Amino acid sequence: MDPEYFKSYEMCWGTLGTVRPFSNFHPDRDVTEIQAALDKKDAVTLVRILTNRSNAQRQVIAKTFEEMAHKDLATALKKALSGDLETLLLELLMPPVQYGAHRLQQAMAGVGTDEETLMEILCTRSGKTLQEISTAYKQLYKKDLEKELKGETSGDFARLVVALLNKGNVGGVVQRDIESLSASLNGKKAEAGPWINILTSRDTDHINKVLMGLELQSGQMVDEAVEKRFTGDFRLGLKVLVQCIQSPDVYLAKRLTTMKTSLVQGIMVSHSEEDLLCIRAAFLKLTGTSLYTALQKQFKGDHLQALLAVCRSED
Predict the structure, then answer these.
(1) What is the tally of helices (H) and strands (E) in the chain?
(2) pLDDT band at 170 (very low <50, low <70, confident <90, very high)
(3) What CATH number is attached to the domain comprising 289?
(4) Are residues 12 and 88 in the same domain?
(5) Under a CB-based contact definition with an 8 Å cutoff, are residues 208 and 222 in contact?
(6) Dist CA 56 CA 36 (whole Å)
(7) What is the pLDDT of residues 31-75, one digit of tens each?
(8) Which domain holds residue 34?
(9) What do you get for the CA distance between the two ends of the chain, in Å?
(10) Are the beta carbons of 290 and 277 closer than 8 angstroms?
(11) How far apart are CA 199 and CA 283, in angstroms?
């Protein structure tokens, strides 16, 4: 970690992110160091600089690098590095909205769709951010995100995914919404419609009241009701949505316990400047082990050092 990080940073400790703006920031100096590190394939220096700058500062570094070196920083990193470390540093270089679009594209690429990653992103991002991601998706891939999602999904799950992409904030009456969800579970076949309509169009506080009211009325946990009454991708999607409404930190911590490289990097990069401290706390409570320690058991080398720098510290 850059020793200047703690002694020079006048930190805005209100943030729940682990990566914060570096106050003693000199992009020209960073670029000079990066150029020398690229020539020597010095991964340690590249990791030290790129993990100790905020994303906005990394964008300035990339722009300054292009002006000074007359080449693209991402392309230069690809030539100097390989494997998981290369992927992680390239992900850190992407603006957050572009990175969200990239993760969605990756979840739909190739044979089969990673439905849970689609849901993770759609459930943990605001409606405004998702609209920005849609715009970035169009710019990056020349395709309409909503159409792509429809093409990769089907039935009630497709309806849920599209509703989440276009989520709004429509007022509702708690008791009426409880009754709608309760009634939807009472027929021979559970109805998906009320769940999609209510859970994608109300604010989180309202939905939490509705879900708590439904549990009190029915005498069973919402996830148990969803498990019993729905099937397939829609059941998976609804379970993820309910978990993200009730406790997004716990849901994301559970995802991290898989220690799958693409998931670990996806969540840590996406949440590093927002709420990774909360996810770390949830991970510790869930597993009895800190995320910092868990990473050391699973990863190694410069890639591990980069992940630890993003994680920031032991709990």
Answers:
(1) 21, 0
(2) confident
(3) 1.10.220.10
(4) yes
(5) no
(6) 22
(7) 999 999 999 999 999 999 999 999 999 999 999 999 999 999 999
(8) 4-93
(9) 17
(10) no
(11) 26
